Amino acid sequence: MPELKSGFATIIGRPNVGKSTLMNKIIGQKIAITSNKPQTTRNKIQTVYTDMEKGQIVFSDTPGIHKASNKLGEYMVEVAEHSLRDMDVVLFLVEPTNYVGAGEKHIIEVIGKSNVPAILVINKIDSVKKEELLSFIDTYSKEYNFDEIVPVSAKTGENVDELIDVIFKYLPYGPMFYDEDTITDQPEKQIVAEMIREKALHALNEEVPHGIAVTIDIMKKRKGQKVMDIEATIICERESHKGIIIGKGGEMLKKIGTNARYEIEKMLDMKVNLKLWVKVKKNWRDNDVLMKNFGYDKKRIDE
Length: 303
Hints:
Helix content: 25-40%
Largest sheet: 6 strands, mixed
CATH architecture of the largest domain: 3-Layer(aba) Sandwich
Strand content: 15-25%
Distance between the termini: 33 Å
Oligomer: single chain
């Protein structure tokens, strides 16, 4: 039997570069929510990639590192920067461009301080001409001495296998941390809440999504039936937002519920009876107690 490697890799980058899409592509299953709106991922999500020949990579998908404007933002940045500690390798995901902005430079600074091997992953190569790639690689090489540079498309899967091989190069030899069937450390309830939040992000206007959270009030399998009853509450910050989320005649809430139910049924492999409610909790993103209630607990950062 081959000697296995097992270790921890974290994916960091600015909001919206495709971190969750890449992780979902590697794992082959939807775990992290995706959206074209910034700050989609709020907590560290651990997912597990297992290859019985090579070993195991435990991935942490973290919130995008950005300038925080409220306590929730500060929490998210702290989660992201903290996740670099105890990692065997860090993946810095960027867009294919010759422009290195202040946000990217800040992340490079954070990587430099961490002393962890760093792989630059240039994502979305399906959106540019192949001959342009060399200039993007050159631009980033001038900013930092990355251990590896791997261009990929998280959307199409191009070069993702090559990236996995490169990650294994930096992992230590040792036994697996999880059994081969494990794909995430997330409780089912949390994944369901995130799926509902994703569908709300997709459906709602720009000003509402950042101010929403989702709590699962009831999640219970019917006795002797392949049916899951779920009741969830979408929390928003203003009465006007509540109206937008519910929509005219309840249409928007119905759309969010229908789309979320489809995803949840796929994941749970059973029929789902989903009921959604909407509640207003003013300025919850700046309230430590409410943030903790909605799953954003500072104490968890050190876990």
